[in-house]
Amino acid sequence: xxxxxxxxxxxxxxxxxxxxxxxxxxxxxxxxLSRRIAQLEERLGVRLxxxxxxxxxxxxxxxxxxxxxxxxxx
Length: 74
Description:
CATH topology: Arc Repressor Mutant, subunit A
Shape: globular
Radius of gyration: 11 Å
CATH class: Mainly Alpha
Protein name: Transcriptional regulator
Helix content: 55-70%
Low-confidence stretches: none
GO molecular function: DNA-binding transcription factor activity; sequence-specific DNA binding
Number of strands: 2
Family: Belongs to the LysR transcriptional regulatory family.
Keywords: DNA-binding, Transcription, Transcription regulation
Pfam family, one: HTH_1
Largest sheet: 2 strands, antiparallel
Mean pLDDT: 91
Strand order of the largest sheet: 1-2
Number of helices: 4
CATH superfamily: Winged helix-like DNA-binding domain superfamily/Winged helix DNA-binding domain
């Protein structure tokens, strides 16, 4: 079963351009957000965000998923 918070948190991470900024906005530890997005990716079987220690990039699949999440929230 999907946790709708994970979808909302994914949208916030993308909107804020990373886990740290989203964590501050949501008053959640960035490690929790990162872990929950990783679990979401595992459940979906796709990579939504390309992570490195210094870069954050939304994948093509992640962009499509982001648009669906945003439209569902409206």
